[in-house]
């Protein structure tokens, strides 16, 4: 008989006798869909794996895009027709700047604005209140001129000191209508305002209110100050050129920004958070692609004789390659389509019931809606199909390279799998691991840990590529037991480790990512808890307002608090914001009592502090984020804008701050008051006299301070619990994405062992002929699954520690500028490992029932 391997391929035959190639036309479709119909569960798992990855990625993209678009639209709406905005610190700047700016050449109109985030009575959140001059705002920001409700007031309400105009979103949020009363906090006093109408346009989802500027300055206790000036330029005047020319005329801390600068600053607020969520979503898609690879690789092993027969009747290697690749695409296209639909539904549900911040707190107060966008949909559809195709590419190449004569023989299934542990695979694993380690030393790109992400991907790929060699080494050197079944198990794993390595790779990929995320989150949570314990030394804390910046404590109220019976000592803190770069979000400025000789008593320092010398500028201590973003270092002399002037300071130390991503600067309270003449404070730490309890102190403080009912009290344990609750909420999406990846990985384990069982039908038949019972084969398969999973979780744990180190020491500092120590959650990792091993054993047993049910004679008839 003619050797099948010598049959000429169709390109050497005449066109009239050329057979139709699989992957082209109805013949290829019949082969593809015939395979899918024969194994519907495997097909469904592959489709769902791709769908889950696409759904998570598309949902995160839609939510982030909707929230950011709504926030940007609101910023643009509030800026109106302004070409340039002069923006100052939260404490404001002298209103005397306004007439000087209004008379500059090139200015068509200028509108002064007071901006306060006011606490609403009965709510923890704040409402943004703007004070505008309606006669000037009509030219620059007409959206901020309220429409009077004739049933609730008259034309004079635009200038009335006790009226406010609310956006539609604010009315809905507060449950108010024109004519109702709105009560906000100013200092420790309650301010009642009548809702006189609605703002014509201020974004569909953002809450804002507008008052007359004089009323806002008076009633909100901002006399003589402004927060911004909106400028409309004359035709032909370039906004960037005007901003550069106006810069020398501005007081320290006031910057001229354009709409483009505002858009950049708005995007920067959540850019790192959004980037990390997108990468996590792609991890789910990557896991789905790996599942497709596992199923296709094992399917190719099972169907080697079928492909060999196709080659023998004249199908080219390219035709076999196209057949397997199109099978992957047949999984990817419906999976991507289902994923897009599920992702849109998930995004709509999250935006409707949870808001657009995804737990990160960057878009509080924004209620956007999910809107279909063709470009991201097309992108994620293409990613889903590409993931499935790439997962099928390596098995397709293997199927195309196999020799028909050898593949038609029984027992050849291990040959291609054995090539996985060749020197080339080991070299590839070493190269990927080495490149990943090199990338961990690379700096961020445009403020994002691009090389950190690449390092994680390369370490993961290198670890997976190393698994065949690891499996061969481990299973070949394990001591052989005395009992027959364990001997059969070890013989199978030691002499045919290639097929085991395919299933092992899926376990390693999913468990390494799972353990890495668990280690990172645990390390972060412990670091935050330790940080809070150092920052909260007092037994009781009070705050003028739980939200916004309208609440504060005046000097008289501070004195009353310090003199209250039962209070042994009170330390007051002033929290405000200053701008060091107009294109970046502002930096928090914290004025609190600090001993320059022992700053570690109040601050969690990241390194040894600088001992101040006589004659040096006053010391300040900057957070890690401020140091990274602005290039500050210990011992450096810097200037900070305070009260419209620039003052020199010495960086006396760098401290860890897990609350403010864009930096915080601590200054001694006495230095702050001396330089700014600002005597207001926002918080207080209270030490109690002997015998006094926190409950007693709270009652006395509310009675002794005018407006004491507005004060918010908390003990250190309550603050830590609330902070950790916010922490867990911010990682809620991370947990969800991780869970999706793990579930996909467990599906992959089941599909892997099921496919292996089908590929080993003849082996099971031979064992049945030798007298091995079905129950014993089931036990043997469960033992194989448990051993492979055990090696997988051990390898995955080792790789996961490496990935966690990259997350903790590279990705996190480059994304958020926070450093921390690595902490292993041994209990959680052990529990997860036990669950994976048990699940692998059970899925191996359950998925192999079909193969074990095949009649023993029929299973080996091809060998007779």
TrEMBL record:
Q: Where is the signal peptide?
A: none
Entry keywords, A to Z: Cell membrane, Membrane, Transmembrane, Transmembrane helix
Q: Name one GO biological process term.
A: lipoprotein localization to outer membrane
Region annotation (Disordered) ranges? 1-23
Question: Which protein family is it in?
Answer: Belongs to the ABC-4 integral membrane protein family. LolC/E subfamily.
Claim: tRNA-binding is one of the keywords in the record: no
> Where in or outside the cell is it found?
Cell membrane
- Coiled coil ranges (UniProt) are none
Polar residues bias spans:
1-16
Sequence ranges assigned to domain MacB-like periplasmic core in this UniProt record: 45-246
One GO CC term of this entry? plasma membrane protein complex
Topological relation to the membrane, as annotated: Multi-pass membrane protein
Record domain ABC3 transporter permease C-terminal: where:
279-402, 739-853
**Membrane-spanning intervals of the chain:** 41-60, 279-301, 321-354, 374-397, 425-444, 450-480, 501-524, 735-758, 779-806, 826-846
- Tell me the Pfam families matching this sequence: FtsX, MacB_PCD
Q: What is the protein name for this chain?
A: ABC transporter permease
In its keyword annotation, does this UniProt entry include Transmembrane? yes
